[in-house]
Each structure stands twice: as structure tokens, then as C-alpha cells.
Amino acid sequence: MPPRVGSQQVLLFTQEDPLVLSSGELLREVEVSYETWGTLDDKASNAVFVCHALTGDAQAVDWWSTMVGPGRPVDTDRFFVICANLLGGCAGTTGPRSIDPETGERYGIDFPLLSVADLVAVHRRLIRHLGVSRLHTAIGGSLGGMQALQWALDAPHEVDRAVVIAASSRLSAQNIAFSSVARRAVLDDPAFLDGRYDQGGGPRHGLAVARMMAHITYVSEGALETKFGRAHQQGTSTPGLGVDFSVESYLDHQGRSFLERFDATSYLYLSRLMDYFDPFPDPAGPASAPDPTPSVDTSFLVISFDSDWRFDTSHSRRIVQELERAGIAARFREVHAPHGHDSFLMEAPGYQSTVIEHLAD
């Protein structure tokens, strides 16, 4: 195993040098938690940035072991791999549960709304801190893929290759609806208290329900049917309003275990920024409006999964079409996999090999 530097903290933005968000608001202090694996080569040319999804963290070799590690597509014996907890997160990076230096209290819902571009701005500052000016690759799935896409559009000179997996460039009404209901479960929990709850407290019921519903959208109907069907938790049915079917027990476990590793207010902020993500210019806009897409020479790979109904293949095809409309070449592959949206975390024939090929080109 190559050198793994445990979780590190760095203050990237300060009172004297604040982060200016895309909204124009300021964050006067931004601390980032990150991990690295492997060794940066003499030319600083082998850095790969792993962008994590909505509920991920900096420990990429743990939650994405099918993609990141020795001998994996993002080979930590070959690459210097970086993964950082997101701005707005809850695993060491500044977010709604952090202390506002202006008030000495937790931000709660006074934390400013974020955009994917803001997440990328922090990533960009981090790689400069680490002595990297151009990435070999930026890679991510779901929200992570959105970050890789945004990065290559915002700063193509910093990204040689971008791998965008199971992602979207514009959420559908259905996607926004799912996230809206999940957030409502949190916001309507009496223990939410505007995000200023004590450690270990807060809207535990609301967050568990939000996770249960969201998790249904991450897996395919076929995967649930194969794993559970109509099996009963105790082997025989006891009709009632409680947990009876095995799939109910499974979702209950997903909700309860989520409480131990994620914060409700971070969930609100990070899910909301996905709703507003729309990085391409509107072709129906004013004819005189300049196209904001810069000259991009990043090599793109876009991957979808045929069982993913949260971000189905049409989302990935739109990314490719928009890139091509802007004169940017992109490789595309739809992978057959049974697991739904979570397929990006799994092994699948043709999936890992396609990533390996792209990183080797």
C-alpha cells in the first residue's frame, strides 16, 4: 500500500483572504479536511482528485474501494490521489455546523447557500496548496461527477482528464421533487432548531426518513426484488403497521446507520446545491449573449448505468451533447449493471476497464 497520509486539516481561506462564493457572499474562514495517497512525482504531473458524492467524505479508498487503491483504476501506486471533504460537509471541512467567526456560534441555517462552483473553488485552492497546478484527472460519481465537470469548464487548464460518472448537468423535476421531500422531513422535525442543535442531537427522525427515501432512489427495482422480494423479516408475516417486510427492515437500518455519520444541515445544503446545478449556457437565451464556456482541451469520459433511474442515461447523454455543442470532444459509455445509481460504487463488466483506458490515454 502506498503512503496514506491520515486526515489532514488546512485553513485555505482566512479573514484576510476570504472565499467569495458565486452568490457574492463571503466565508471568512474555510478549513478543509483531506487525505492523500501515493507520491507526487517530480513534475507534479500524476495528481488525481477524487470528488466525492453527496454523503461521502475524504476517505476515498474506503467508500470507493472498487475504483481507488493499489492496482485499481485510480492506482495509488501510480498516482498521487487527493480527496477532500466538501465545503458544507460534516467531516472536518467548514459547513453549517462550524463556528461562525463573526458570532462565535454555529452557522446553522445562516450558512450561505452554495453552488457546485463553490465546491470546486475550494478544491482548486487545495491543489495549489499541495503544489499541483494541473491534475492528471478529476473523477467523481453523482455529485462528484458534477464537480469534475464544473472544474473542467471553470478551469480547463487545471484538468487534463475528467471522468464524469452517473451524474447530471441539470436535475429533472422528478429529481428535485425527491430531494425536496427529503429536506422537508428534516426541516419539519421539531428537533431541527434552525440547525443549532447539540452534537448528537438534532432532527434524527427527519434525517433517517430522508435517508430511507433517498436510498430507494439509489438502487434499482430489480436489485431490491432480487435481494428482498416480499420476504418477511421474521420469516412469517405479522400483519400490522410496524416493520414486517425485510425491505422495510433494510431501509430502517439504512436510516439509523446514516445518523452516526452524517449531519442533517449538511444534507440540506449539499442536496440543495444539486438542484441548482446547470453549468451549460441556455441555447434558448438571447442570441447576443456570449457563450460562457471557455476553450476546453480537457479529455472527457462520461459514464452512465442502464439500471440507474435517479440519473438515467439521458442525463449523461445531455452532458455529452452539451460538450459537443461547445466543440468539446467526449467519450461516452453506458454500462450494464444491476445496482441502479449505486452502480458507480460497484464492480461492473466494462466499467473499471473503461476508466483505466481513459486514464492511460
Explained architecture:
It is a single chain. The protein is α/β, with parallel strands linked by helices. The chain has two domains: 4-171 and 279-360, Alpha/Beta hydrolase fold, catalytic domain (Rossmann fold, 3-Layer(aba) Sandwich); 174-275, Rna Polymerase Sigma Factor, Chain: A. 32% of the residues lie in helices and 17% in strands. The chain has helices spanning 60-63, 116-129, 143-154, 173-187, 204-218, 221-227, 246-258, 264-276, 313-325, 351-360; strands spanning 4-13, 19-20, 26-27, 30-37, 47-51, 68-69, 74-75, 80-84, 135-141, 159-165, 299-305, 330-335. The strands form three sheets. An eight-stranded mixed beta sheet has the order 1-4-8-5-9-10-11-12, with helices on both faces. Helix 2 crosses helix 3, helix 4 (173-187) packs antiparallel against helix 5 (204-218) and helix 4 runs antiparallel to helix 8 (264-276). The longest helix is centred in the middle third of the chain and has 15 residues, at 173-187. The two termini are 25 Å apart. The model has no long low-confidence stretch (mean pLDDT 94).
